[in-house]
Amino acid sequence: MSDAQSIGVAGTGRMGQALGRLLMEAGCRVAAVAGRDPGRTQAAARFVGAHAATLEELPQLASRLLIAVSDDALATVAARLARAGARHGVALHTSGAHGPEVLAPLAASGFSCGALHPLQTVATPEQGVLALRGAAFAVTAEGAAALWAAEIVRLAQGWMLTIPAERRSLYHAAAVLASNCFAALLDAAIALMSTAGVQPCDALRALAPLARASCENVLALGPAAALTGPIRRGDVETVRRHWERLADASADLRELYRVCSLRLIGLARRSGLEPAAAQRLQDLFRGGGQDDA
Ligand SMILES: NC(=O)c1ccc[n+]([C@@H]2O[C@H](COP(=O)([O-])OP(=O)(O)OC[C@H]3O[C@@H](n4cnc5c(N)ncnc54)[C@H](OP(=O)(O)O)[C@@H]3O)[C@@H](O)[C@H]2O)c1
Prior knowledge:
- It is a single chain.
- About 55% of the residues lie in helices and about 10% in strands.
- It is an alpha/beta fold.
- The protein has two domains: about 5-165, NAD(P)-binding Rossmann-like Domain (Rossmann fold); about 180-285.
- It has an eight-stranded mixed β-sheet with strand order 3-2-1-4-5-6-7-8, with helices on both faces.
- Strand 5, helix 5 (about 105-110) and strand 6 (about 110-120) form a beta-alpha-beta unit.
- The longest helix is centred in the last third of the chain and has 22 residues, at about 200-220.
- Residues about 290-293 have low confidence and may be disordered.
- The structure holds NADP nicotinamide-adenine-dinucleotide phosphate.
């Protein structure tokens, strides 16, 4: 039987394993890890250092449920746990996009429900255990769920962002911009380099120091102060030539360059670009390349 502090992890993926292991290492009693595939559940439980269980067994083993399954499976898993007899505990899920409402079946069973999204990328459980320490956690919760969320954040030596439920999608879109869209930008840069004659494997290697230093500068100085390049300098002719040569590029690559450039012009204005140069650059992208200045 479970006690009020025992934790059950629902989900055998990267986040469930990483957070489960982190809590175990922090001295929490992680009673079990539950999943739908016996083999994956055994392996995940071994990594966390807990027992393996089915989702139906989990409510008997733990009063604190940490639900780390795919976003689209949250409602189904919450319903399964509620049907299995989960009563009067605390449940947190780790999705950034959803609020506590996705756990409605558990709330109806007397659970205090909340959302706790680690603002970190977890590619493997091992990397995740390290990377989650010190991360920000976006929390939407009240009552007992808020208290448990705060405890997890403290144990991870992280810090808490309080996000209203109706704004979680905006928050999560921001996280996607900072993380996944970075991959899309580099992918586009590699594609463009290859049309310039550089092999894709060389392109990534060549771009890596530039991308790394740019990222570090932005993080250290802030986006406006870290900005360099033709838009920041107001080199309109250079940017015009880019834009003209991109006429043969794919539509999505052109649009990516155009939208990023418009955002960069605003950023450059904030870091000192003269208004007249900013206007000429803007006309270039808004006027379909017909900059007549
Ligand atoms: N990884 C990250 O960087 C990261 C960062 C922040 C937050 N998160 C959040 O953490 C949660 C889990 O993500 P993850 O990266 O750990 O994903 P993952 O590695 O792909 O694992 C997903 C887990 O969900 C389970 N699942 C999927 N559909 C299910 C269903 N219908 N019924 C029961 N279980 C089901 C999978 O079970 P099977 O193994 O049986 O398929 C697997 O255990 C998500 O809400 C995600 O938004 C992830």
